[in-house]
What does this fold into?
Amino acid sequence: MMYQRAVEFNEYFRCYVVGQSKVRIMPYNPRNAHHERYIQNPPEYDKKLLARVEKDALTLCRALGYDLNTVEFAVENGIPYAIDFMNPAPDADVHSVGKENFEWIVREVADLAIAKCRTAPQAPELRWSAFLASPGDGAEQPAALKPAPLKTSSKPVPVKKTPAKKSAAKSKRPSGAES
It folds into this structure.
């Protein structure tokens, strides 16, 4: 069980975090109707508060390993409290987030996707022959298919001898049965 208490917030922010490096802080009011939650003409906020919100949003996303996320902060007495920070599929509907936020998230996610494609590791050439190859025939096997090294022990493993089973007598087919 987790102890929780209500945060009586004066400010509330929803932040897009992209690529664990870019943050878009959006003033937000969860008490408003869904289509009015993103505040379009926000007041001026303390620069130290915004810097703290950005730093904390990045810290959370890096710790979680999320390249795309939204992090929500409720601010009470100048202290930002992370309220919701596990949204790897954030709301990006132009009708709810507004045109400027929508254009920002689309551009940043597109740039992230392009950057990931450009820096992606080279995939091994996967051919059936490599998967079907025996370890000793000279063909290279994918690392996942290579057998693990055997663990050897200095003590001999006792071998238990069991008598061989006798094979069952062959059944005779009834006459006229087709083979």
About this structure: The longest strand covers residues 68-76. DSSP finds four helices and four strands in the chain. Residues 11-118 form a domain with the D-amino Acid Aminotransferase; Chain A, domain 1 fold (CATH 3.30.470.20). The chain has a mean pLDDT of 82.
